[in-house]
Design a protein that fits this description.
By secondary structure, the chain is of the alpha/beta class. It has helices at 12-22, 35-43, 55-80, 96-99, 101-104, 117-127, 133-137, 172-185, 204-209, and strands at residues 83-89, 108-115, 140-143, 157-163, 190-194, 212-220, 226-227, 233-235, 241-248.
Length: 251
């Protein structure tokens, strides 16, 4: 039975991310990146955006890079003999709890999703009666307004925080305020940040004033779409992507 979904309750950027992770089509996309997103699109096609754009390639690239960052952090924790709590801020319909967590459950012992009430309500409505119901039931859900997103310390785990899709949903000043809150509440955390593109407005100096140091960074430049002489799009363009691995600033 198809459940009634208020598509207007989902931010457009969340629907783009859902489509980028779950779509299959064309000669360049042979399988979905995320099986949960693919199932959601298959059972609720009304969530598919009306048109596609070059943001999709950037979202897929961003997802691959963040997944790689997470694997590196998990391996680092293994070598150090410690465990992690995973805080996902703004993940929308991403399902790393299905895609990655089963391979990392010796290191990541708790998985928490922080999202707005409207997004989590729709996600929970769809997944609690889905083929992914059991895995989804193990995820802790935190409904928070955007300006209140944060994480909490745990005595036995170090926090690994993934803050994704923020430039599409928050102003630069609000992202800075989020990082400031995180530094106050979980000062020993590692943050994988989907960062603002501008190196001037979003500088390493600014991050130091917020309590963070850039330990690693990926910055991919935009790529324009490839257009045939008759005007057909041969290959979609890609939006720029900037990811940062942030650790507490010492000094």
């Amino acid at each position: 039975m198809r459940l009634p979904i208020d598509t207007q309750a989902l931010p457009l950027s969340t629907r783009w991310s859902l489509y980028a992770l779950g779509s299959v089509g064309g000669s360049r996309i042979n399988s979905p990146l995320d099986q949960v997103a693919a199932w959601v699109l298959r059972t609720h096609p009304e969530l598919t955006p009306l048109s596609t754009n070059e943001a999709l390639g950037g979202i897929r690239t961003r997802t691959h890079l963040i997944d790689a960052f997470i694997l590196e952090e998990a391996e680092r924790a293994r070598l150090e003999g410690r465990t992690l709590s995973f805080w996902s801020l703004g993940s929308g319909f991403d399902a790393r709890w299905w895609r990655q967590l089963p391979h990392l459950d010796d290191v990541i012992t708790r998985y928490i999703e922080v999202e707005t009430a409207s997004v989590l309500a729709i996600k929970d409505l769809l997944l609690r009666t889905s083929p992914f119901e059991l895995a989804w039931s193990q995820v802790s859900l935190r409904e928070e307004d955007l300006e209140q997103w944060c994480a909490e310390p745990e005595p036995d785990n170090r926090a690994l925080i993934v803050a994704e899709g923020l430039p599409e949903r928050l102003e630069l000043e609000e992202i800075a305020e989020l990082l400031q809150r995180l530094h106050q509440h979980v000062p020993d955390a590692t943050v994988i940040l989907d960062a603002p593109i501008s190196r001037v407005a979003w500088s390493r100096g600014l991050l130091r004033t917020l309590g963070w140091t850039v330990a690693a960074e990926h910055h991919l430049r935009p790529c324009a779409p490839l257009i045939a002489r008759d005007g057909r799009e041969i290959c979609p363009g890609v939006h720029p992507v900037r990811l940062q691995r942030l650790v507490p600033h010492r000094g």
